[in-house]
Amino acid sequence: MTETIVVVGAGQAAAQLAASLRQGGFRGAVRIFGEEPYLPYQRPPLSKKFLAEPARPDVLLLRPESFWHDQDVAIELGTPVAALDLPGSRVVLHDGRAVDYGTLVVATGTRARTLPLPGIALPGVFSVRRIDDVRLLRPALDAASRIVIIGGGYIGLEVAAVMRGEGRDVTVIEAEDRVMKRVTGEIMSSYFERVHRERGVDLRLRTRLTGIEGEQRATGVRLDDGTTLPADLVLVATGARANDDLAAAAGLAAEDGILVDEFARTGTTNVLAIGDCARFPSRRFGRRLRLECVQNAIDQAKAAAAMILGQPAAYDPVPWFWSDQYDIKMQMAGLMDEHDGAALVGDATGGRFSVDYRRDGRLIAVDAVNDGRAHMLGRRRIAEETAPAPVG
């Protein structure tokens, strides 16, 4: 094959796609366009090790620059795509150039979800999604003693752990009745609530904000009960939304993510979408999924490459995730949000345990704390017990 593959987005999914295409023998041109000025890099460490121990951005790179040169993959950094011209089989860059493609792959990822709050745009209000976010945030953190974090999900709690490790005062504001409610069950939420409170985090559940205080910069947050909490810095960690705007504007179907089939194909010929921005059908879990994790970025990119190479294989994974908080590693496999029963395995007070989640008697998810064996066995069991019945 010698057609040109154009990839919009330069994250982990784009990097894996290009590597898999070359590994599979694709000899045509591969061109990747990324908004950021950095080669494809790891994002999970941004709220963990990279935030705690600032280093040069190149420590996060998935591959050295020489790899892309050796593989003859052209990556144009700092080059946003302004529009997808699907009838013309080309993409229009922000600088006005038009680039033709034989196959287009959209891998635009996600962006931080914003809150419609007064003061949200004030200096001193931050989010963590990109390297440059951390490079701006870290000096501000160094000058701050009182941190308010909006959101008690992975990123909010990971940053809270880093900040408490540095001895800073941390308040976490969470609108739900427990932390990480979207991704884990009550047992695990209760465990992490206790862990953070024991380490001095002021964790406020069932609490909503009405605004960010300050004139020239953020000086605090105002709660819905009228209370004002002073802050030297405010971090917004309320999740992410899919970067599906370009695709939707071009006429691709999108519903909080670009809709694709099990082979990563959109409804338009020779246009695929992969990674955090794509929503695909899962027979395993009985619904469409949009996953924000390294596993999905890598494995769906491999599936898309196989499709392009004429070796299609349906993508229907057992997803897995992880979170590092203090000296605790939480590893998750499967999806627990539709479970009808949860069972604790081990002792939650001992710092090493797991939780099994079942639906209709089948294991659909496992959360493990400091227990890699439970995580790996759980992934295997979930794959077996959720395997969809053969078609036909």
CATH topology name of the largest domain, in short, is FAD/NAD(P)-binding domain
**Helical amount:** 10-25%
* CATH architecture grouping of the largest domain: 3-Layer(bba) Sandwich
What portion of residues belong to β-strands? 25-35%
Major sheet description: 5 strands, parallel
Number of domains: 3
Note the quaternary state here: single chain
Assign the CATH class of the largest domain: Alpha Beta
Radius of gyration: 22 Å
In terms of structural class, how would the helical and strand content be classed?
alpha/beta
Overall morphology: globular
Overall mean pLDDT stands at 95
Tally the helices: 9
- Going by CATH, the homologous superfamily of the largest domain would be FAD/NAD(P)-binding domain
Q: State the end-to-end distance.
A: 33 Å
The count of DSSP E runs of length 2 or more, i.e. the number of strands, is: 26
Strand order of the largest sheet: 3-2-1-7-19
Uncertain regions: pLDDT < 50 for 5+ in a row?
Answer: none
